[in-house]
Design goal:
single chain, Rossmann fold, seven-stranded mixed sheet, 31% helix
């Protein structure tokens, strides 16, 4: 059974929520938050970024940024066709894609980038140097929600990890952030091993949104949304979204 199969949790408040997971993971990563948001009436769409959600990391070989953009645009179009108000929440790579979509779609009701892959740490998984064809991400030593929902590839093609990011260049180097005008709530853990904590302030400083705020999470690491530190970010996210309905 594919644990990262895509899903939709039907809500009743008329708003649609597109959820974009992190790199090498899949739709399962957002299931706890998707269920939490659904309790407040949001219809939540857990999708897989292109090249993700398959049984093998080989699906990432040859993957391009354009592939990921096209899949995200198609998923967004699906949500837009069914809802008048559409929000996007993204984590890490999904957070970067969330910023990209918001820079192209000024009609989004709001976005929540979580630890978006904007200012990357040099020790992060995507910035290391490798001498083998595959990088190994061990699946052992996992527990709790992290073990249940962070279903990622154990062996990741190095060609995928070391490929220059067109999306990152457009958003950061070319300051595509200035094209974002919708309400935005950035969430960033202080002890993130992959993304610089300064990312939250950086994003808010560079977007053109009048309604912008960020939250620093005290712990939980990069994947804080599946940690014991998830409760306050979940609740603050709901507060932000309900205010925009």
């Amino acid at each position: 059974m594919n644990l990262n199969r895509e899903y939709v949790f039907e809500g009743d408040n008329g708003a649609g929520m597109l959820l974009l997971h992190g790199s090498t993971s899949g739709a399962s990563q957002f299931r706890p938050l998707a269920a939490f948001l659904n309790m407040y009436g949001f219809t939540t769409y857990g999708v897989n970024i292109a090249g993700h959600g398959e049984e093998s990391g080989d699906a990432l070989k040859g993957l391009t940024d354009e592939d990921m953009i096209q899949k995200a645009e198609a998923d967004l179009a699906t949500v837009k066709a069914k809802h008048n108000k559409v929000f996007v929440i993204g984590f890490s790579l999904g957070g970067l894609l969330t910023l990209y979509l918001a820079s192209k779609h000024q009609d989004l009701a709001g976005i929540v980038p979580m630890a978006p892959a904007v200012l990357l740490k040099m020790s992060g998984f995507h910035t290391m140097k490798y001498e083998t064809e595959y990088a190994h991400k061990p699946l052992d030593n996992k527990s709790g929600l992290y073990k249940m929902y962070h279903n990622h590839y154990e062996n990741v093609p190095v060609s995928y990890l070391t490929k220059p990011s067109v999306i990152h260049k457009e958003i950061v180097t070319q300051n595509g952030l200035k094209n974002i005008t919708c309400p935005i709530f950035v969430i960033q853990p202080l002890n993130d091993g992959s993304v610089e904590p300064a990312t939250a302030q950086y994003v808010c400083d560079h977007v053109s949104s009048a309604d912008k705020q960020f939250m620093m999470v005290q712990g939980g690491g990069h994947v804080f949304l599946l940690s014991e530190y998830r409760y306050e970010p979940y609740e603050k996210t709901v507060e932000f979204l309900l205010r925009l309905l």
